[in-house]
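With this grant's support, the team has encoded backbone shapes as discrete tokens. A representative record is reproduced below.
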Amino acid sequence: MHSLAVNSVSTLLDRFSELLKHSKMEYSDWKYTAVEGEKPALFITELHLENSQFGFHPTIEDFTEDVSTVIRQFEETVLSVANLVPDPFFDAFTRPMINKNFEAKTCGEGPDLSSIFNDDRNLKELVLNIRDCLDTAFKAANNYATTLNPLVAFYAENEKMDVDQFMTLDPTLEFFGDALKKYSTEIKGKPVYSL
């Protein structure tokens, strides 16, 4: 039972590690799709622009909590199986018969699986490695998000413009020339910071 739970956590770690190695994504039509031959994402988070700042939904804290819950459920599942050592059905294996008399169980009541989980350094290391994978994935996503900061800057600047106030101004021809240059480069994704 212990091995079953540890192997489940190890498989989860292997999947995370594999996805991090092959995390090349293509961006088209406002949706991410896996490069051909790549496995689909195990989890998906969305990048939202709120108050001129990016935020992920769900957050890394949400993912870490959910993965911890999954790991806890692996353990709870195997802990829900009753210990087979005290079961009289298995007396033939746990209580030897000598001279037609059953001897006392030499193995006691069997191992305490909960204690085994608490003492298992390998399992704890696997869980830490899974958290490291999540951290690495979110760091990569944050690095990508920083490449969009120039877009956020000119979006925020454009949002600040008061159209009604602008209509009361008497802008010059140079102003419109500079504005056309600025906004045409923004459409192409190359922001101009001065007007």
Remarks:
- The chain has two domains: 2-147, 149-195.
- The longest strand covers residues 46-50.
- Confidence is low (pLDDT under 50) at residues 25-31, 191-195.
